[in-house]
Design goal:
The chain has 363 residues and is an alpha+beta fold. The protein is built from nine helices and ten strands. The strands form two sheets. The chain has a five-stranded antiparallel sheet, covered by helices on one side. A five-stranded antiparallel sheet has the order 2-3-4-5-8. Keywords: Hydrolase, Membrane, Transmembrane, Transmembrane helix.
Length: 363
């Protein structure tokens, strides 16, 4: 794209928001259909009051709550309340049970109106709001998809959120560089947990997913630190561990930002070694460098990257948590390495905190 010289007028064309108009048109058709349904029920109540109950008006109410946005839902609720009043006047007798049913339906309309008003800040209906949340969740999980690797490498990740929610503050981002020769992966723990940290995790995972594939390894964590500082969140910090692995030689670089130490299992001795690295938490201190810790994964070696939810519990030292995790991992090794990340994440760690685990094994 050629830059525009100074002083040259630029034509700005307004782009019609076709998707918004299409969405509004669809809602109007749905509203029209629900209005016809309510009118049909109202006619049925008037013609056959003993056969058609006026409580059938709850059907368009429920459908409107699921399919309509806040603005169109308000019009439908106003119509339904008027229809209820007309239906009540068409009843041959007024019994306490009839009056109670009428009061309950009007109360449901008021509740639906309150919910609609509360959703007005988002501006979309419940059905589309839920689909958006599912899409956001899938995007977080997609960031951690491990790319296709050579057959002599096994890399698995596991994520588990506090309370079993699909939204979590822990996530994994991964990519390959240099025509698939180098694997770049980061395990990140955003402050907070569960749904409270899910939105920040989504935004940060998108940024880190772009940075990890675009920057040299030594610049990734400093760039992520600068990004968090610019966001100025109330809980604007995160911990992370970044692995840059040469898939041909097994040489790697590890950098951490306030994160628990990675651990490596050496196939020859069967011993685990914690790899001590130092680096401040992301989002607190500007202009920080993160020094690498270099090593090599030989044939049969295993490297574990994890978040503090895997090893931390109240009133327990983190070293004891690491020892417990490694003890369970050693037991699981006896069966198979396939699926080990999921099995290990299911057995250890705090159920009240988000957990993320990445396993790297050189066959």
């Amino acid at each position: 794209m050629q830059p525009v010289p100074a002083g040259v007028p630029v034509e700005v064309r307004a782009v019609s928001p076709r998707r918004s108009i299409t969405s509004l048109g669809t809602e109007l058709w749905i509203l029209f259909g629900l209005v016809l349904l309510a009118v049909a029920i109202l006619l049925g109540v008037g013609m056959y009051p003993m056969q058609v109950p006026f409580t059938a008006l709850s059907v368009p109410l429920v459908l409107g709550a699921l399919l309509l946005g806040p603005r169109t839902m308000t019009w439908l609720l106003a119509l339904l309340i008027v229809a209820l009043l007309i239906a009540q006047m068409q009843q041959p007798t007024s019994t306490p049970r009839l009056i109670a049913a009428m009061a309950i339906l009007i109360l449901l309309c008021v509740i639906a109106l309150v919910i609609s008003v509360r959703r007005s800040t988002l501006g979309i209906g419940q059905r589309r709001g839920e689909s958006m949340l599912v899409d956001l969740r899938d995007r977080i999980l997609a960031q951690g998809t491990i790319p296709r690797l050579p057959d002599n490498w096994l890399v698995e990740s596991a994520l588990s959120s506090a309370g079993g929610s699909p939204f979590a503050g822990d996530f994994v981002v991964a990519t390959t560089r240099e025509d698939g020769r180098r694997l770049e992966v980061a395990v990140v723990d955003v402050s907070g947990k569960g749904e409270a940290a899910g939105t920040r995790a989504l935004q940060l995972s998108g940024a880190m997913g772009g940075l990890i594939g675009a920057l040299p390894p030594r610049h990734f964590l400093p760039a992520a630190n600068d990004y968090l500082l610019q966001r100025d969140w109330d809980e604007g910090f995160a911990t992370a561990v970044h692995l840059s692995l040469d898939l041909a030689t097994g040489d790697y670089e590890l950098r951490t930002a306030g994160h628990p130490p990675p651990v490596q299992r050496f196939a020859g001795s069967g011993r685990w070694l914690a790899i001590q690295t130092e680096g401040p938490v992301l989002g607190l201190i500007p202009s920080v460098d993160y020094e690498p810790r270099r090593g090599r994964l030989g044939s049969g070696d295993v490297l574990l990257l994890y978040t503090d939810g895997m090893v931390e519990e109240p009133r327990r030292d983190i070293e004891l948590g690491i020892d417990e995790m490694l003890g369970v991992a050693e037991q699981l090794f006896r069966n198979s390495l396939d699926g080990l990340a999921e099995r290990l994440a299911a057995k250890v760690g705090s159920r009240d905190d988000d957990r993320a685990l990445l396993l790297v094994h050189r066959r």
